[in-house]
Amino acid sequence: MTPVSTIVSFLALFLSLVTVSCDVIRLPSQASKFFHDGDNSSAGTKWAVLVAGSRGYWNYRHQADVCHAYQLLRKGGVKEENIVVFMFDDIAKNKENPRPGIIINSPNGDCKLWASDYTGDEVNVGNLFSVILGNKTALKGGSGKVVDSGPNDHIFIYYSDHGGPGVLGMPTSPSLYANDLNHVLKKKHASGTYKSLVFYLEACESGSIFEGLLPEGLNIYATTASNAEESSWGTYCPGEDTSVPSEYETCLGDLYSVAWMEDSDKHNLKTESLHQQYELVKKRTAATASSYGSHVMEFGDIGLSKEKLVLYFLAQTQTMKTPPLWMKIHSGHFQDLQTSYRKAPEGSTRKAQAQKQVLEAMSHRLHVDNSVLLTGKLLFGISEGPAVLNKVRPAGMPLVDDWDCLKTLVRAFEWHCGSLSQYGFKHMRSIANMCNAGIQMEQMEEAAMQACPTVPNSPWSSLHNGFSA
Ligand SMILES: *[C@@H]1O[C@H](CO)[C@@H](O)[C@H](O)[C@H]1NC(C)=O
Ligand SMILES: *[C@@H]1O[C@H](CO)[C@@H](O)[C@H](O)[C@H]1NC(C)=O
């Protein structure tokens, strides 16, 4: 190895050990008729909202998750007119996609592209909320499809993307904040337009989206890929899983998402309950001695989980095989860059480019970590700062009491220090703790200005676009 490549490898190893970069995952939303109503399964309509919150080829897995979920629901008999899909749609036709027009969510997978209802910049928080609330007049662009549900209907929402404490990514700015999402769910409940709603959410720190925020009594049952303080993980990743076809340089799926979908592909959904699926998914997603994992959580009306998974999913029961391996990696853009670097031929232009990208990504990470830490020290003192930033509130308490404060401080920080990017989502808790400690915008402005005297003209912005422009 050349000295530089040795340094790159060393730094990469170092960073992958010290910075648990979150494969922030999104919520998978699924068709609303996910379970049947006791003995009255014919009553009501099943609706689904499926959201891939990312863009970019290195985030292949999120759109692959959503493609798989769409197929699963369609095969199960949920009508196309009742499934609303949010997908940036830059994967299937991406020039890096080794199989044009096809997205795979497992080594043997095969998911054909279909028309997404909301693509590109139409994948945004405003449209997502309008779709859930069934408000056509508030939509901006897209197919115009909304969850036009009635009181007997069942709604399934699945989201997959990167996240951080209290926040979920979207391919466009702004990000989706936990309090706003819960507010919309409460509003939907108040409108009396569903019987029950199931929310499956894949993202890092996804437990923080509902913890202390989603009350009982809304007829909502939610499960999340991870608890409020940990990463969720990608799966079927090149270099880690030998079954992944060699032409792929990106992870094909996310661990929790693939777990619930492959379970749905495999089991008799007429007899399997949401609770049984929760237990199976929890087991498969958990860390083992040899692999990464996370704690799958459940929130809301847990009692709903005794309902059965929809019988419509039965059709493909016999044909699906369980994939051989469960190797998992803490995936993300950074891992993909490292894979590209490793795979590029020695001495090639491609190798040089990949090396440059790895170095830029590392430098971005160091900048983000250092500037958050320095801001904390400026606000709370050198010895107290880190303790305040790392504080975790007791279970059952939301991340922050004043969500507007969190949004304001994030904006102020980014104004001076540059975009947090999806990597920096993990610092949401630190910024939330600043709010909980009573820090005001002016104090944040001052501290961030000192921490970041020059605005970084981020060379990494092209790598980390989509979050906080
Ligand atoms: C089943 O659904 C029908 C139509 O909505 C309704 O009239 C009936 O009361 C329901 N039966 C039960 C047992 O819930
Ligand atoms: C739908 O959205 C529009 C525009 O934001 C708003 O004025 C209207 O009140 C909304 N309708 C409902 C029923 O919430």
From TrEMBL:
<keyword id="KW-0378">Hydrolase</keyword>
<dbReference type="InterPro" id="IPR048501">
    <property type="entry name" value="Legum_prodom"/>
</dbReference>
<keyword id="KW-1015">Disulfide bond</keyword>
<feature type="signal peptide">
    <location>
        <begin position="1"/>
        <end position="22"/>
    </location>
</feature>
<feature type="active site">
    <location>
        <position position="162"/>
    </location>
</feature>
<keyword id="KW-0788">Thiol protease</keyword>
<feature type="active site" description="Nucleophile">
    <location>
        <position position="204"/>
    </location>
</feature>
<dbReference type="GO" id="GO:0006508">
    <property type="term" value="P:proteolysis"/>
</dbReference>
<comment type="similarity">
    <text>Belongs to the peptidase C13 family.</text>
</comment>
<keyword id="KW-0645">Protease</keyword>
<keyword id="KW-0325">Glycoprotein</keyword>
<protein>
    <recommendedName>
        <fullName>legumain</fullName>
        <ecNumber>3.4.22.34</ecNumber>
    </recommendedName>
</protein>
<dbReference type="InterPro" id="IPR046427">
    <property type="entry name" value="Legumain_prodom_sf"/>
</dbReference>
<dbReference type="Pfam" id="PF01650">
    <property type="entry name" value="Peptidase_C13"/>
</dbReference>
<feature type="domain" description="Legumain prodomain">
    <location>
        <begin position="356"/>
        <end position="452"/>
    </location>
</feature>
<dbReference type="Pfam" id="PF20985">
    <property type="entry name" value="Legum_prodom"/>
</dbReference>
<dbReference type="GO" id="GO:0005773">
    <property type="term" value="C:vacuole"/>
</dbReference>
<dbReference type="InterPro" id="IPR001096">
    <property type="entry name" value="Peptidase_C13"/>
</dbReference>
<dbReference type="GO" id="GO:0004197">
    <property type="term" value="F:cysteine-type endopeptidase activity"/>
</dbReference>
<dbReference type="InterPro" id="IPR043577">
    <property type="entry name" value="AE"/>
</dbReference>
<keyword id="KW-0732">Signal</keyword>
<keyword id="KW-0926">Vacuole</keyword>
